[in-house]
Structure formats: structure tokens, C-alpha cells
Amino acid sequence: MKFTLKQHSMAARCGELVLARGVVKTPAFMxxxxxxxxxxxxxxxxxxxxxxxxxxxxxxxxxRPGAEVIKKLGGLHGFMHWQRPxxxxxxxxxxxxxxxxxxxxxxxxxxxxxxDGQRVFLSxxxxxxxxxxxxxxxxxxxxxxxxxxxxxxxxxxSMTLSLDWAMxxxxxxxxxxxxxxxxxxxxxxxxxRLASLQGLIDMxxxxxxLGGLSVGEPVELMMRLLSQIVPQMPADRPRYLMGVGTPxxxxxxxxxGIDMFDCVLPTRNARNGHLFTSFxxxxxxxxQNKDHPGPLDETCRCYTCAHYSRAYLHHLHKTNEILxxxxxxxxxxxYYQHLMAEIRQAIAADDYANFRRAFYxxxxxxxx
Length: 368
What we know:
Layout: E1 2-9, E2 12-19, E3 22-26, E4 28-30, E5 32-33, H1 43-48, E6 54-57, H2 58-63, H3 67-72, H4 75-80, E7 86-89, H5 92-98, E8 100-104, E9 109-112, E10 119-122, H6 124-134, E11 138-140, H7 152-173, E12 179-184, H8 190-203, E13 207-210, H9 219-229, E14 239-241, H10 247-256, E15 260-262, H11 265-271, E16 274-277, E17 280-283, H12 303-307, H13 310-318, H14 322-348, H15 352-365
Parallel strand pairs: 4-15, 5-6, 6-7, 7-11, 11-12, 12-13, 13-14, 14-15
Antiparallel strand pairs: 1-2, 2-3, 8-9, 9-10, 16-17
């Protein structure tokens, strides 16, 4: 992996992440392909809207169909017919959010599978081995995601465990050619976050991620932590904010210096009829869309907006047609990728502050 910064606009930055399977322009948004598929989208559709890298979930793929099955079938790229870069998370967040009867120890985590209730053991070494079998381009270290709220002692214990697991992940990764990112933990405590970051820097990683945010804390608290922690992250390595977020979250986090994002919001919300536009959210089920002849967003050039009215999308949603989910997903992911392109253009022009003001002004003005 090679990471090159191209331009700055105050703390916001744009650059280029060069990986064996392609170049990723940053700031970048990674659509989430939980089970080796970005829901409702083909790889060709993802590429056509500007996606250059996607995320898949180690935890889910380990349980179904199993990493060895995927390895035999050409790795995750061959298995899902996506030939551009893939980042895989380590499974730490899924253990935190999904696993039943989870028991942590210094060795790893024992939990009940949400698929069939079987006992499963996951350790830093197994998380890395699984990601190697998937043939990821970017591998994440195994971490312990701290819940919110949590006491300072509970958070410190969790952060210390994550640092130990990060070192074991690094050792297990060895000289493997994939990039390995460390994950900063420390909950909502600035000093613990900084201690976690310094510990990871001392170990040395290809990139650094912020985990354990957007787990229920107020947005204001998350942004305050970002403003404190991100400037301390290595300037020559990619900075990844995991699991975030809304368009507003992304615009504000870029202003702090974040380079990479992933989130299920655009795909999950699409299936629920919650659609993102330049002027705010559209809930397509609302009666005002029943006979609306126009597109979701007059400024959007995606396939959905070019061919279908809000009235038709309202009809598909009301009748629970699969096409509605597909068209909504195409639009939402197109919106996110277009937003990232606008962000990169504004940074390249050293005009990010004005872009950010205009972004919020459009949303405050509402639909034209």
C-alpha cells in the first residue's frame, strides 16, 4: 500500500491510496458488503457510481459460508466478482453488537453464533488468518469495542486489551502483502484515546482507524473527540473513521482530517424508504410523494433520478416491490459517492470551508 497526500484545505485533506487491485481517491466512502455483497447492487453497478473500495465483514463470512470455502473459490474478490480493493473488518464490532453470551479473556472471545447458537472462538490470530484467507487488500487488527456508556476503568481495561490484541494481530500478519490497520479505542475519554493511539504508533501500522464511535454517544461528543484525536494521528498514513455515518457526520469529520469512511446507512435506509438528497432526507412513503412527477433530487444524475419519479418509487415502496429497494439503493449510494467527489473537489480548490457552509445552507433551505 502507498498513501500520498495531494492537497489540504485547512485540516481537510485529499489524497490517493494505491493498492494492488486499484487506486482509491480519498476522502473515500466504502459501501458495506456484509456477506460479500453490497445489498441490491452488482459489482458493475457499484463501479458505475464511482465506488473504488468496499468493506466486507470477517465475522459474518467466517460463520457463513466459511473462510476456507471462499479461499477455494478464488478469495473474496473471485467469490463475489469484485476486482477492486476490499477492506475487511476484524469482527470485533460484530462480537460487541451481535454475539450472544460473549465471554472475553486475554486469549480472545468465546461467543454464541447468531446464526445457529454454536460456540465460536475468535482471537487476534484467527481474525488475521481469516482475513488472509479472504485475501483482503486492507486487513484490520482485532479489537475490543467498548460500549457506551462505560466507566473510565471499564474503558481503560478494554483499551488495554485492544492494544494487546493489536500487537498479536501485527505479529500474526507478519510479512503478508496486505495493508494492516490498527484501531484506536478508548471510549469517550480523550487521554485513553491518546494512549491507545500512541501504543499503536509505537507498534507501526499501515493506517490507523478510530473504532468505538457512533455507538450511541451524542454526535457532539463524537465530534469533540475527533477534533482532539485526529490531529495527533500520523499525517502520512490514512485515517479511517469506522462505521460513520450520516452525510453531516462525513462532512464534519473530513474537516477534522479523516480520509476513509464506511456505514450501512445508505443501503439500510434505502430499503426502509429513507433517501438522501442534496436538500435533506426524503421519506418516500409519505403521501406527498404519491403523485409527485419529479425525481428524488433534481441535481442528481444517478440512474434512478434519470428514469423514475418519486411517485413511482412511492408506489414500489407501498407494494413492497424488490425493484424499489434496488432503485433506492442505487440512488443513496450514488448520493454518497457524489458527495465524496464534491468533497475532494472542494479540498483540491482549497475551498472546503465554503463548501461546508454551502452544504449546510442547502439542507437548511429544504426541498426547492
